[in-house]
Design brief:
The protein is of the alpha+beta class. Helices cover 23% and strands 37% of the residues. The protein folds into 2 domains: 231 residues, P-loop containing nucleotide triphosphate hydrolases (Rossmann fold); 126 residues, OB fold (Dihydrolipoamide Acetyltransferase, E2P). The structure holds adenosine-5'-triphosphate (ATP) and magnesium ion. Its EC number is 7.6.2.11.
Length: 367
Amino acid sequence: MTEPAIPFVRLEGVTKLHGQLTAVDNLSLTLARGEFFALLGPSGCGKTSLLRLIAGFEAPDSGRIFIDGADMTETPAHKRPVNMMFQTYALFPHMNVARNIGFGLVQEGMPKPEIKRRVAEMLRLVQLEGLGERRPDQLSGGQKQRVALARALAKRPKLLLLDEPLAALDRRLREETQFELLHLQKSFGVTFLVVTHDQREAMVMASRIAVMRTGRIEQIGAPAEIYEKPNSTYVARFIGEINIFEGKVAAARDNFLSVSTAAGVIEVASDVAHALGHAVVVAVRPERILVTLSDLTEASPSPVNALAGEIEEKAYLGEATLYRIRLACGLVLRAAAQNAEPGARAFEPGDKVAAGFAPEAAIVLSS
Ligand SMILES: Nc1ncnc2c1ncn2[C@@H]1O[C@H](COP(=O)(O)OP(=O)(O)OP(=O)(O)O)[C@@H](O)[C@H]1O
Ligand SMILES: [Mg+2]
């Protein structure tokens, strides 16, 4: 899953400097043809810079960029089989929506009736039928974004770079559009490279995700791989919520470690050997924590790791209830209980509880 057999896009040691600042740092990456790839990372980590290099709006200071087997490092943007949808939309203010969407097709010399047909198809796709005559300043933010998306797709490029394509949409439209984008990408066979801030969005759409950190890629993998086997605390924290315990290896046997932490000794499953005394981080997702009342009298098998604490806050989210649990050591844990069964036990602030999790539910990371 890590490297496609026949790369469609290949970046080799690409670096981009802005004065003193290294926006993209010796980055190598391959995308397979027809892949839906997502780039995730905090603001300023170099996502837009990377897209601009692939599109050809900027030249790298070093490294090479191959697309569809050809070295495109020196090729100008308009000669690359690539289109980009910008974070800021960059619509032409004096043109109506239909002309914005058809702009690239006119440039290409496509016959008028075909342009009309293609524009109508795109308007339907982004649910803007009937708005073709409007100017961009007569549209809402979300509508502008959809025009930009339609314009980027109209030319059916081999590679489409999308910079935060859905950021301005409301939640419902955003989720709908995620599935539409997926469908579109599959039916056109276009390779998509999408930048997003939203890890859920990346997980819904992408077959592979790269998590970036200061110009480099920290980890690449399928969504489940990144979520369940993050290779660093940075990735673990960036993808979803996670509880972190810092500690030292106190005992190791077979595939288990005992890690001594401020919250007590935590037993974790680990197939990686760690030396005694080695500093490690134990990470546990909130949904893997089972909350029980600590004065429970009936005999129930207590999990290996059961940390005593008190419910500090509770948030009912419909499908799940989130708890903040303050442990005796002062650490605050987050636990998420699914509300799948009506009438399931809910805890209230002040309840004395045990936060339990299995050794297999914890991830061991080097600190
Ligand atoms: N033209 C430029 N001149 C100088 N610095 C720049 C330029 N473009 C980007 N940078 C810097 O390069 C770094 C990476 O910027 P980039 O726009 O790629 O980040 P990003 O990951 O897209 O962030 P965001 O999520 O906020 O859009 C930032 O520190 C930014 O300030
Ligand atoms: Mg950006």
